[in-house]
Specification:
The structure is a single chain. This protein is of the alpha+beta class. The protein has two domains: about 100 residues; about 240 residues, 2-Layer Sandwich (Alpha-Beta Plaits). Helices cover about 45% and strands about 20% of the residues. An eight-stranded mixed beta sheet has the order 2-3-1-5-4-9-10-11, sandwiched between helices. Strands 6-7-8 form a three-stranded antiparallel beta sheet, with helices on one face. Helix 1 packs across helix 2 and helix 2 packs antiparallel against helix 3.
Length: about 350
């Protein structure tokens, strides 16, 4: 979008915000909620527009003051300040105008499974799962364990959690894919470095209105929970397996001792998986837009390597390497996540302007 085209678009948004404020003075009932929602979405960008316009006015006034010898020094300082502020404000506005992923603000379901590497993959899957839990805590998000199928060595066959909060999906969605670990396993007596892989899937949490599931489309099986070291008392059929027949999606849950609770958790995961599949189909139909995204979101894409002997974490999509693997495994993931988000924003801006 050209500078003049951007200016025209901003004028339209400012006028619309003014219209909404006027309409709200006489609105009633459900109309109030709809107008308020639209205005609350517009307000942040309108504030940025006002700041941009004010900076442009200040720049023009400073330019005019240059001719006055007594005001020249002040004018030059003002021009330097506005020259620095205007590009920042314009970029923020252009970002705000990009189409939003409506799932970004949502909570998420995070799943981890070992892929290649046997016991070592299961151990690392458990460690990375705990690292995500620590990261969630630093963000003030609520972490609810859904499943943690542990083996005798302390590794996991699969683990999942519900992560609730604002913009959880926006910050975690780029974690989906294959994570590779290189290190000497605790069980390795020869000191040889092994390479293992695990898969991470992050799905936006779906509401009932997002995914319509008919009870008649479900096959629900119950069975006795199985766990390592007798962690479950196998006296009742508390474990639940739900199959969504139209899509073939299967979710099994056994973490809770209550069949009712396991069913509720399984339905939450089932809904998220079906919603993710719907979103993937939509993304495939908008392939040009996907070129402006970091990674494909494909669970088979190798996205990151954790090299313990070298103490480094490398994200292959953006070429970022951090030499602080211990801190990352303690949940300090902001540097990686924010770099991924910034790269995605830059790519989408370039695609929109190209």
């Amino acid at each position: 979008m050209s500078h003049s085209g951007l200016s025209l678009r901003l004028d339209q948004l400012t006028r619309r915000a003014e219209e909404l404020r006027a309409l709200l003075e006489t609105a009633q009932g459900a109309q109030v909620a709809a107008l308020s929602r639209e205005l609350s979405n517009l307000d942040p960008i309108v504030e940025k527009i006002a700041a941009w316009r004010a900076a442009e006015t200040a720049q023009a006034e400073a330019q005019a003051m240059l001719a006055d010898p007594e005001m020249r020094e002040l004018a030059e300082a003002e021009l330097a300040e506005t020259a620095a502020r205007l590009p920042v404000l314009e970029r923020e506005i252009r970002l705000a105008l990009l189409p939003k992923d409506e799932a970004d603000a949502r909570s998420a379901i995070l799943e981890i499974r070992p892929a290649a590497g046997g016991d070592e993959a299961g151990l690392f899957a458990a460690e990375l799962f705990r690292a995500y839990q620590k990261y969630a805590e630093t963000q003030g998000w609520r972490w609810t364990l859904l499943e943690f199928d542990e083996n005798e060595l302390g590794g996991v066959k699969n683990a999942s959690a519900e992560v609730e909060g604002t913009n959880v999906f926006a910050r975690l969605k780029f974690e989906s894919g294959v994570h590779r670990v290189q290190r000497v396993p605790a069980t390795e007596s020869q000191g040889r470095i092994h390479t293992s892989t695990i898969t991470v899937a992050v799905m936006a949490e779906a509401e009932e209105v997002d995914v319509q599931i008919n009870e008649s489309d479900l096959r629900i099986d119950t069975y006795r929970a199985q766990g390592a070291g007798g962690q479950h008392v196998n006296k009742t059929d508390s474990a639940v397996r739900i199959t969504h027949i139209p899509t073939g999606t299967v979710v099994a849950m056994q973490e809770e001792r209550s069949q009712h609770k396991n069913r509720a958790k399984a339905m939450k995961v089932l809904r998220a998986r079906i919603y993710e599949a719907q979103r993937a189909r939509l993304d495939a139909s908008r392939s040009a837009e996907r070129k402006g995204q970091v990674g494909t979101g494909d669970r088979s894409e190798r996205i990151r390597t954790y090299n313990f002997p070298q103490g480094r974490v490398t994200d292959h999509r953006i070429g970022l390497t951090l030499h602080k693997i211990e801190r990352v495994m303690l949940g300090e993931m902001d540097e990686i996540i924010e770099a991924l988000m910034a790269e995605d924003e830059a790519a989408r801006l370039a695609a929109a302007e190209g």
